[in-house]
Task: inverse folding
């Protein structure tokens, strides 16, 4: 572990490692396999549930925790592996448990925030090291050496997770099969602290409140968030073939008003927030619905439990990343699946953002955004092309606009760049009129030098007196992100802004 990771420490409350461990955890581990394997710690069982074992024999000054592993949070998927006895001592907490008939031992050292568990088995020797990073994160290293002295190593992090959140998703078009795979991938890799259970509403039900409301307003199976993908042209005509049979270009507002009435009903009986994501209509008819979208936005804006994302925002996200078409007329007519794979990727990203916004932000308040400069805030290397040569095109200004908006909402902005300070300062000074981000007005701290970025960020955390888990790091270079993620795993990071 890099020394930078220790710059801002975290102490387990009262040194009570046993209390700290209780709850659900999700593991994000990588393998380096050289021969051995440890069947109870395979990466497929990435959920760990640690709870007090009430069946264990009571003993003075000891506690017993049962460790269970599984693929999901569901009780039927969790298999109990062993129960660990915790024995506190002045020098730390000692641990003892039985595994496959063998007595195993471990110890937690509070001064180092490290626990070491040793499994001395007949066919292998396994050592698991847990390092507490913050209230919700542990770094993990598992070394499994077989009888031939060949090791297998797993390493990564464990994140404390909330109980499973149920998210209902529906669309006015066929979307479940097209979006399921990319959305699940994003949720697996982006939302570590929440286990998300997706529920897809029945195809065609979104236009009828009586149909979809029975799925989301159900006391027996309550949902935590409702996401509706709505194309206004689908509200006017349930299928593209019906749209083609229209005699004129006037918008039929009866079905749209019926849909809005359903949202108003939901607003009065809602048990979970709803987000309506408006999706772009076919290019040949889009302008017909501009006025209707503004009216929809106005009416949804008056609802307390329903919010809306405009189709323009979705198109803007698409155009930042792709130059291809977003609409597939043939698939729309044949399957009522109107969007290209590129647009479906952007829609999945947008859905994931909404889920993150509600669940992740609620459980982990971020306070600082740390920004790289070259090819992140602007295009090109300022030391090579000079301030006049850097690219300040739409995608770079979009990021600047976003982070300034976050700064205005109370977040702190900092720079961390492997660069020459004079060059970076000149870029902000000479191109001030072309930028949204102002170095003097918006940025509270800078680390512009050639030191490892993890060391610079750890120093920023120390100077700002904030925990590393409150930091977000944005850099275009995956290698830099990996360096920071390895040394400072409690930081949220992105290799590009999408």
Result:
């Amino acid at each position: 572990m890099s020394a930078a990771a220790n710059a801002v420490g975290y102490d387990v409350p009262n040194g009570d490692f046993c209390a700290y461990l209780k709850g659900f955890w999700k593991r994000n581990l990588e393998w380096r396999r050289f021969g051995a394997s440890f069947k109870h710690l395979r990466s497929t069982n990435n959920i760990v549930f640690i709870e007090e074992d009430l069946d264990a024999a009571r003993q003075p000054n000891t506690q017993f925790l049962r460790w269970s592993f599984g693929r999901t949070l569901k009780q039927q998927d969790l298999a109990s592996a062993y129960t660990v006895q915790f024995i506190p001592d002045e020098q730390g907490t000692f641990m003892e448990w039985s595994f496959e008939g063998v007595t195993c031992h471990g110890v937690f050292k509070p001064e180092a925030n490290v626990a070491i568990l040793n499994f001395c088995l007949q066919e292998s020797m396994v050592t698991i090291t847990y390092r507490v990073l913050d209230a919700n994160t542990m770094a993990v290293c598992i070394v499994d050496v077989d009888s031939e002295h060949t090791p297998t190593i797993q390493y990564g992090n464990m994140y404390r997770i909330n109980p499973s959140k149920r998210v209902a998703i529906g669309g006015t078009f066929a979307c479940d099969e097209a979006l399921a795979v990319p959305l699940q991938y994003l949720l697996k890799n982006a939302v570590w602290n929440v286990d998300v259970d997706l529920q897809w509403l029945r195809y065609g039900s979104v236009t009828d409140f009586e149909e979809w409301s029975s799925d989301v307003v159900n006391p027996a199976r309550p949902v935590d968030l409702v996401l509706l993908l709505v194309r206004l042209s689908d509200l006017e005509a349930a299928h593209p073939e019906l749209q083609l049979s229209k005699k004129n270009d006037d918008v039929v507002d009866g079905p749209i008003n019926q849909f809005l009435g359903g949202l108003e009903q939901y607003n009065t009986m809602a048990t979970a927030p709803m987000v309506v994501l408006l999706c772009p209509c076919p290019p040949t008819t889009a302008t017909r619905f501009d006025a209707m979208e503004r009216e929809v936005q106005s009416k949804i804006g008056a609802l307390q439990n329903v919010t809306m994302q405009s189709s323009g925002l979705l198109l803007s996200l698409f155009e930042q990343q792709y130059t291809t078409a977003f609409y597939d007329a043939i698939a729309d007519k044949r399957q009522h699946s109107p969007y290209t794979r590129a647009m479906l990727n952007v829609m999945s990203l947008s859905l994931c953002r909404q889920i993150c916004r509600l669940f992740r932000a609620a459980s982990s308040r971020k306070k600082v955004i740390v920004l790289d400069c070259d090819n992140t805030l602007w295009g090109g290397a300022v030391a090579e092309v000079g301030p006049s040569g850097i690219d300040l095109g739409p995608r770079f200004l979009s990021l600047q606009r976003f982070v300034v908006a976050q700064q205005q909402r109370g977040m702190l902005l900092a720079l961390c760049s492997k660069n020459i300070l004079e060059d970076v300062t000149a870029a902000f000074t000479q191109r001030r009129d072309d930028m949204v981000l102002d170095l003097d007005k918006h940025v509270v701290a800078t680390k512009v030098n050639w030191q490892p970025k993890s060391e610079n960020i750890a120093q920023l955390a120390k100077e700002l007196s904030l925990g590393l888990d409150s930091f977000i790091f944005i850099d275009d270079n995956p290698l830099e992100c990996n360096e920071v993620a390895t040394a400072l795993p409690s930081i949220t990071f992105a290799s590009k802004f999408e």
